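Figure 6 in text form: structure in, sequence out.
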């Protein structure tokens, strides 16, 4: 439950005077666990004891539960199994569709094509391409990423 509080500890619903409202934080943790299908026997299990996929789902869930105006997601599905990847992608798509601005940073080209409205490719510190997912293929993105292709972005 403590990990779900990170970066949200100043939110009024989690405070009881100058102290943490433990029951509210645990209830929020249970909600994140349920919403993101985090496989754990209890909200009291430390995040480090969870599998990598469940840690990632908990992390994405915690960040989305804070209702940010912008989500910066760097490699959100790196190292997770296909089931956890699909769950994270579904939640990120739903957040995007609900109006959340998402900046996705990923080396997984399929992830970029599947989740993005617009893809900007950088090489050597500058933008080399600006593509829609319909225009993008892994091969084309790879060409721009390595500097083999150049486009005025």
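Output sequence:
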């Amino acid at each position: 439950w403590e990990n779900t509080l990170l970066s949200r500890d100043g939110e009024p619903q989690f405070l009881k005077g100058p102290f943490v409202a433990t029951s509210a934080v645990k209830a929020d943790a249970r909600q994140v666990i349920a919403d993101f299908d985090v496989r754990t026997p209890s909200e009291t299990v430390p995040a480090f004891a969870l599998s990598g996929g469940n840690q990632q789902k908990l992390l994405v869930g915690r960040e989305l539960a804070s209702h940010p105006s912008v989500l910066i997601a760097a490699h959100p599905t790196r190292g997770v199994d296909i089931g956890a990847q699909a769950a994270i992608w579904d939640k990120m798509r739903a957040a995007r569709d609900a109006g959340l601005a998402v900046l996705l940073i990923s080396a997984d080209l399929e992830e970029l094509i599947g989740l993005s409205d617009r893809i900007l490719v950088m090489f050597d510190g500058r933008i080399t391409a600006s593509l829609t997912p319909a225009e993008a293929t892994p091969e084309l993105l790879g060409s721009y990423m390595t500097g083999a292709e150049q486009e005025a972005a």
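Caption detail: The beta strands are 15-16, 19-20, 70-74, 101-105, 119-123, 126-131.
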